[in-house]
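User: Show me an example of a complex going from sequences to structure tokens.

Assistant: Sure. Here are the input components:
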Amino acid sequence: NAGVTQTPKFRVLKTGQSMTLLCAQDMNHEYMYWYRQDPGMGLRLIHYSVGEGTTAKGEVPDGYNVSRLKKQNFLLGLESAAPSQTSVYFCASTHGIYEQFFGPGTRLTVL
Amino acid sequence: SQKIEQNSEALNIQEGKTATLTCNYTNYSPAYLQWYRQDPGRGPVFLLLIRENEKEKRKERLKVTFDTTLKQSLFHITASQPADSATYLCALENNAGNMLTFGGGTRLMVKP
């Protein structure tokens, strides 16, 4: 039982490049979330999903897109990376609106 | 707008003492509040959940209180240990009830 896994762990991009972050969970959770964490800002919700095939915007969705084609996977895409998107990205999942299980994070640097 | 405040300054205490962390919020009417622990370079880990009709909840050396009148939660660690050193985050469900909003966290340093 791996819990929540994230791929990759680290990535460096140049401005304008695109990439996809993958989150996978093996707990059969309905809800999945993408957060970013910046120093002094806490965790901020980017997008979330309440079930396979559904997505919704969070607090800071601009510049990101998501897809939930399979229940166990939640993908976060950056179409044209900007330096302001340098951050640590966390994925989380939960059965409902209770405790969330977090992945280990992806550290992204955009030059 | 909805706002959650945690003391951004680190809390330094001596081993064996009780650590008390504060979470204040405005413009929320949460049905429950959660506390998480985050170690450097890792994702947050759930610790406790307290509902609006519960004044206090305990788990081993941890105690959480929830005062919906004051709009405040206190998080206590009794008999603190250096291993308790971490950042502690509080989180509230939003008014729509479909997501959590996190505070900025308070870093706790327990000195031996």
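The lines above are the inputs; the final block is the predicted structure for all two components together. Chain B has a mean pLDDT of 92.
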